[in-house]
Amino acid sequence: MKISQFSLPKFTIVPLSLLAIVTLSGCAKSPQDLNVVTHNASNTLEPPSTSTASDEIFSIMHIPKAVLQEYQKKAVKEPNNYQAQIKAAISYHEQGNDEQAIAYYKKAIQINPESGEAYNNIGNIYFRDKHEPQISIPYYEKATKVQPGYGYGWLNLVIAQKQVGNVSDAISAIQNGLKKVSNQSGTVYQMLKTYEMRLQASS
């Protein structure tokens, strides 16, 4: 499914209150099908995609162009509004302008340097759109450093490490993530647990 981060890694997203900016598309048949997960403005995560990590990792549900333009205008009018910068970044990504998207994510980071969301979504751009998983890794690492309990960052770090062949680093990231992510009944925590079993079985 082609759209936009957004996400997981997936840069794909679930509706912004049913409006929608998506982080991942599709449903995974197994943890091996997981792609990068994107954390969107409403903190929602769509199920992992069945596509490979190099395919649909960052897609966004269709949002009318007029709405996207409103996101961009609001970000300019409210330069200190964190969510406005995030939405503008998602908007630019949807329109194929990843450089502007990254610029707005960086503005969001300046406003709230303790949030892992923007770092995560920059990582997703490099992972999916630029096909440079190695470059995405430091962004995921930063996301988990500034916000240790941010499960999306840990999950995407695992996926990126696995993608570049660093299985031991992926397992280490899973173990660290499981210690930091507090919601043990949450989807991301369970995905980390399942991924851990898969990687340990294959290593």
Automatic annotation (TrEMBL):
It holds the Pfam family TPR_11. It comes from the Bacteria. This is Tetratricopeptide repeat protein. Coiled coil: none annotated. It comes from Alicyclobacillus fastidiosus. Residues 1-28 form the signal peptide. Gene3D superfamilies: Tetratricopeptide repeat domain. TPR repeats lie at residues 82-115. Keywords: Repeat, Signal, TPR repeat. InterPro entries: O-mannosyl-transferase_TMTC (IPR052346), TPR-like_helical_dom_sf (IPR011990), TPR_rpt (IPR019734).
